[in-house]
Specification:
This protein is mainly alpha-helical. Helix content is 60%, strand content 6%. The chain is built from 16 helices and nine strands. The strands form four sheets. The protein has a three-stranded mixed β-sheet. Strands 1-2 form a two-stranded antiparallel ribbon. Strands 3-4 form a two-stranded antiparallel sheet. Helix 4 packs parallel to helix 12, helix 11 (275-290) crosses helix 13 (322-362) and helix 14 (369-384) packs parallel to helix 16 (430-464). The longest helix has 41 residues, at 322-362.
């Protein structure tokens, strides 16, 4: 409950929004110096949101008062407070399900453990064969290796060249950013796995899906619809049919499957301060789908796993005992994870932040709110007193580094808004407001925490008095 009260104080930086009832239009930028598409109907949400938004920080005396959610006319309410259940999940907030990290085609899902088992058996057989050799035959084998060392080196080098050729012949450019990346699997494989994963998520959350008439569903639908309309000049965006699914779960999470299925949890709707932050987060998730990060990560994992089979065979062949081989295999797996997998995942997250911010800018969102969201997440961790893990242990950048990265990208995003003829941003910069009030929020929470502790002590003392 103490955490809840502290977070209610944090939620004091509230933004009020109203959706204009009159039909308006927005402009979606088509690129640097190029034209913008105008007169797209039913997009009046964003043009009015900037002008009537305002920040208001509550004083400590309002801690016990109920924070009401901001009204969004004709759409409903966006809950604007954390619950105790939400705060337990803030630290692990990740936008993207873990299963998206390696969506292999079905054949490779089945064959992958078989490959590792085969490598282990081969390595173990080599070790047993070597131990069973008489000393004289071992010396003959060593002499044969020395005699044919150049042939062996040529064979190993040829194998290495094949891997290099395979890698460079499977490089493609990432949409929008133009970054070179390895793609082993085709888009047809991605569609198959997307459908399998979609069925899995629907089966898991079928009973918790909000109906389309729910106000929260309507909010998410408007945000996704506006983002897609604003960026329809991008072929990868216009090619997908976006379907909305809002899950009534306290988990602070959202993700978009590669086939355009959007899943948003109500815990995230409770966590965001305003519709600008929600737009950026969904833009980030849409960017994952547009940039095809799922199939890219699957390709990298498959390529590294294939290479690791060679090292796995060597480990089981060289280690004198099975226990040592298991330890060596574990070390090899962790080295691959922390040297390749996790840094690559952080790179993809940073790229999705960049492209997602551009999507939001073209939709005339207040892009400055993007870094405020991650600053708020970092502040929640500070209040809870949780230790900060090193970034290299995570698949995602830390909240602090993520906010700093977005701050560096915001000036370019503001230029995109200007090129798209978006309405100018009025009022103070939300980042400045948050920084100025951050220390005040911490001090107010600590003061309230002390007062609560004192009250609890007094109540316990009264209960100890004998009854007369």
């Amino acid at each position: 409950m103490n955490i809840t009260r502290g977070l209610k104080l944090l939620r004091g930086n509230c933004l009020f929004f109203h959706l204009a009832q009159t039909k308006n239009c927005y402009r979606a930028c088509l690129g640097k110096g190029q034209r913008c598409v105008s007169n797209v109907p039913n997009t009046d949400v964003w043009r009015s949101a900037h002008h009537i938004s305002r920040f208001c920080f509550q004083s400590p005396r309002l801690l016990k008062e109920k924070i009401t959610s901001p009204q969004i006319s004709s759409v409903g309410l966006i809950p604007n407070h954390f619950s105790a259940g939400n705060t337990q999940l803030v630290r692990s907030f990740r936008t993207s399900p873990s299963l998206r990290a390696a969506p292999f085609p079905l054949f490779w899902i089945i064959i992958k453990p078989v490959q590792k088992l085969f490598a282990i058996l081969v390595g173990r057989s080599i070790r047993k064969w070597w131990k069973a050799l008489p000393p004289n035959k071992r010396e003959l084998f060593k002499e044969s290796v020395r005699t044919n060392k150049w042939k062996i080196l040529l064979g190993v080098s040829s194998l290495g060249v094949l891997f290099v050729v395979f890698y460079f012949t499977h490089l493609e450019e990432t949409p929008i950013t133009g970054r070179a990346r390895l793609l082993v699997f085709g888009k047809e494989h991605l569609r198959q796995l997307s459908q399998v994963e979609y069925s899995m998520w629907m089966e898991k959350y079928e009973s918790k899906m909000l109906p389309e008439t729910d106000a929260r569903y309507q909010v998410v639908k408007r945000v996704v619809g506006h983002l897609s309309e604003s960026n329809k000049d991008i072929p990868q965006v216009s090619a997908l049919t976006w379907a909305i699914h809002v899950v009534d779960e306290p988990e602070v999470n959202a993700f978009v499957l590669p086939n355009g299925e959007v899943f948003v949890f109500t815990g995230l709707l409770n966590a965001v301060s305003d519709i600008h932050q929600l737009s950026f987060i969904l833009g980030h998730e849409i960017a994952h789908a547009v940039l095809e990060h799922a199939i890219e990560k699957a390709s990298l994992v498959h390529f590294l796993d294939f290479l690791s089979l060679i090292f796995l065979t060597m480990i089981w062949a060289i280690c004198p005992h099975d226990i040592l081989a298991v330890v060596g295999q574990r070390i090899q797996s962790k080295l691959q994870e922390f040297i390749f997998d996790r840094p690559y995942s952080r790179t993809l997250e940073a790229e999705a932040d960049k492209v997602g911010l551009q999507f939001a800018a073209k939709a005339c969102v207040d892009v400055r709110a993007s870094s405020v969201f991650w600053q708020l997440m970092e502040l929640v961790e500070t209040i809870k007193g949780e230790p900060k893990l090193p970034e290299w242990l995570s698949t995602h950048p830390s909240h602090e580094n993520r906010a700093e990265h977005l701050d560096r990208l915001i000036p370019e995003a503001l230029k995109i808004r200007e090129r798209c003829n978006c309405p100018s941003l009025s009022g103070p910069d939300p980042r400045l407001v948050f920084r100025l009030n951050r220390q005040h929020l911490l001090e107010s929470y600590k003061a309230q925490e002390t007062q609560n502790s004192t009250n609890q002590d007094l109540s316990k003392t009264k209960l100890d008095f004998p009854h007369t």
